[in-house]
């Protein structure tokens, strides 16, 4: 049995509930999954500023969970918030939604579009796409709605905006598949796939399956160089408890 942790690095409990439901449907029955938020951080992650603060909350959760025996982590944010830092903190494999979704999309389509809620996220995601070597075959587009619009009374409006932008990408960008660029969209992946008639990749499902596979194969994050444990030193002020010397 593998024990997986799916961490939503923002404070939206509604998003975490969606993510937990999707995770429990996605993993194999013999594995265990927990889904949770940090104790502090932004309500949502919309751009670089939010991401910087959310990363600290993410790392605080991993520091608490890791000694309890976690076989793999999913960072349930499409910005892949704090993924590289998290890989330095644990031996267990860590996967963000953007990287996981891109790896799946590459196997299913020659060209694909990431549709994210807000325009402020387009450039950061383009940078991630380039980092993962996928910029030749991937475009990033915004639906023009807030991330939190996919909850509550605005959910129908947000879905329509997502559908219209996805349709436009299929027509204008030559996309052959759509990648959902937000963890809060996880519960509408099947509906959009049915409405569009093309593959729709949900990063939550993709990242979980990748981490689950890595855990089953007993593969761990290399500590040889890039993701090595950070050298001991003092941190000061409110970050005193995060000092690598305490690891």
From TrEMBL:
Family matches, as InterPro entries? Asp/Glu/hydantoin_racemase, Asp/Glu_race, Hydantoin_racemase-like, Iso_Racemase_Enz_sf
Q: Name one Pfam family in it.
A: Asp_Glu_race
PANTHER family (UniProt xref)? PROTEIN DCG1
Q: Which family does it belong to?
A: Belongs to the HyuE racemase family.
Q: What is this protein called?
A: Asp/Glu/hydantoin racemase
Please name the source species: Thalassospira marina
């Amino acid at each position: 049995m593998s024990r997986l942790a799916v961490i939503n690095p923002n404070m939206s409990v509604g998003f975490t509930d969606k993510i937990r439901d999707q995770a429990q449907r996605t993993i194999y029955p013999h594995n265990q999954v927990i889904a949770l938020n940090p104790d502090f951080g932004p309500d949502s992650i919309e751009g670089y500023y939010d991401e910087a603060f959310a990363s600290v909350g993410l790392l605080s959760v991993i520091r608490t969970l890791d000694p309890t025996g976690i076989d793999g982590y999913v960072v349930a944010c499409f910005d892949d918030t704090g993924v590289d830092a998290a890989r330095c903190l644990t031996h267990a494999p860590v996967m963000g939604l953007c990287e996981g979704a891109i790896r799946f999309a590459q196997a299913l389509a020659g060209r694909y579009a990431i549709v994210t809620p807000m325009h402020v996220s387009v450039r950061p995601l383009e940078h991630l796409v380039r980092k993962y070597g996928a910029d030749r075959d991937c475009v990033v587009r915004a639906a023009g709605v807030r991330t939190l619009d996919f909850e509550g009374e605005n959910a129908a409006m947000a879905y329509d905006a997502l559908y219209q932008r996805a349709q436009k990408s299929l027509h204008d960008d030559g996309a052959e598949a759509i990648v959902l660029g937000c963890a809060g969209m996880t519960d509408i992946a099947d509906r959009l796939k049915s409405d569009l008639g093309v593959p729709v990749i949900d990063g939550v499902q993709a990242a979980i399956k990748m981490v689950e596979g890595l855990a089953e194969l007993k593969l761990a994050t290399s500590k040889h160089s890039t993701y090595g444990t950070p050298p001991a030193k003092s941190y000061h002020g409110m970050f005193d408890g995060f000092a690598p010397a305490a690891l």
